[in-house]
Structure formats: structure tokens, C-alpha cells
């Protein structure tokens, strides 16, 4: 496939291009560049996806189809796994490709599937208790591997509900699962800087986790705060970094759980969290209040990078037709983003994946 290099002003009618700055003097700017467009035969919506070790993977819940492709968009394998039964996996909203080529598929129930390189389900490990947070959000990166154990967001231990007041304050955030024995143990405590330390009701969150080396990054999707934990020190909190975004819209905590009073049209949300060698990146939407909606459209996703040495970058506006990033990389490396199937013409039977790069301006 011929590699196409062009900036988003050419590719899209609507450009939401931004700059990214890693230096202390705010002098370095970056453009978001499309290197190639991959067209992959795949029908329907896409509920989860990932890219690692030169391999991409996408999944559709309705059909149960999994498809694996290479860096040029060539199909490597595809398979259909039913949602029910002994050989099935219910709604999967988290996928992870391991360094051996096998794939972890996290169901919103208590199942974690292991798929081989041909996308055949070869094993299912069940958590010892049900998932108390049945959130149907797509592509939640809430599973990690560390020293042959799985770290995952799976609240509900001891029949406690994560919707109860003070749940995350009084309980652990994650579970550590041994996939060989099926035994799980609670892991990781809430940052003292988190809003969930307050004795107030908040909109129920879900969690995002990602690891680089011995550092695990954790964030709730509805809180503009990212926490780093040292896995070598049994999950000791390193620090918590507030997301540098003044426009992040939240439904405030309440003494009585009354919910949205109508003042929030779209909640702010962190939609992706990516660990990097010297920091992390987040994809998020700021949200929209009823007051601001009179003069503003629904906000798109933004990408922001945090360096342990220089702090936050400037935000990069992602095109409105991006559904989610399959992965992310800095230092001139390419990464992949999935185009929202809903933005494509009716009857389309292709998944459109963009190969992208951050380039100094």
C-alpha cells in the first residue's frame, strides 16, 4: 500500500489541529500527521481494539467477530466467538496482546479469555466474584500484566457494591489475579487527592490502567486526576497529577444522589490512558455545560502528554471521526487510530485505521 503523508487540513474538512510542547520554553510545536490509511474488511461497529508488537486487533460484540491485522492492514486471522456458553465470551471491552502473541480478552462479567494467535479461545479464567460495575463503555484499558499476574479493575469483592457511598475510599481499587490458580487478591489504594475520598455521591466511574516498567498509572474516567504507583513496592503511591484542563466538566459530588440537574450536557471524561517511558498520555473530552452549549458544539477528544521532567504538553485536538486510539507512541514513532464506523457511508464493510505520527513543526 502506498504510504500517504499529509496533514489533517488536507484529509479532513473540519480540522481540529493543535500543538504539543515538551520544552520548558514553550518553543517546540508538533503536528498530527497521517502516514497511511488502512482499509480492513470488517463489518459493523467496533467495541474494542488494540495494537502492539506490529499487530492490530478489533472486535465487534454483536457478531462476536475478532480480526487481527498487520502494520499494512493485511488480515492475519479472524474468528467468531459466541457471547454465551462454555466456549463463549460475553461483551469484551478490553483487549491486550501479550509479548508471546496470545491475547487477553476482558469481559464485563467475571471472565478473562485467553486467545491464541489464530484468535481461538483456549482458556477462560473466572474471577471468584461477580463484577459489580457492569459498564458497557467500549475499549476500556482496565487490564494489565505484571510478573505473570493480571491486574484488573473488577470491583465488588465481599458482595460490596461500587455504587455505595465511599466504596473506593474504603476498598481497594484493583484485583490481582493469578491466571493459573484463579485466586485473586485486592490491590492498590485510592490516592488521598482523589475526589472519591469525600463522603459524597458521585456519578459512578470506571477505571483505566496502563503500565510502563514498574510504574502503573491509574485514572477514573470521570475525574481529572492520574495517579502513579510503584509495583516493585507493592503498589505504593508515587504521586497524583491533576489533568491540566480548566474546562473539564463534572457533576459535583452530592450528599444525596440526585444526579445531573440538567446543567451538564456532556460530562468530561478520560477515554484513554497510555503509560510512556518517562510519563504518560491521556485522551479526554472536556465536556459541555448547558450554559456553554448555547454557543459551542459537542467537544471532540483531545490528546495530552505528561513528561516527568517538563510537565504537561499543549493539547492536540483529535479529528471528530476518531473513535479511539489503538495505541500511542512518541519520539517519532507511528501509532494507530480507529475511525468511527458511524462516520462512514451506509453499507460500508471496512474498518478504517489511520497510521499517525507526531511531527515537529
Automatic annotation (TrEMBL):
This is Lipoprotein. The lineage of its organism: Bacteria, Pseudomonadati, Bacteroidota, Cytophagia, Cytophagales.
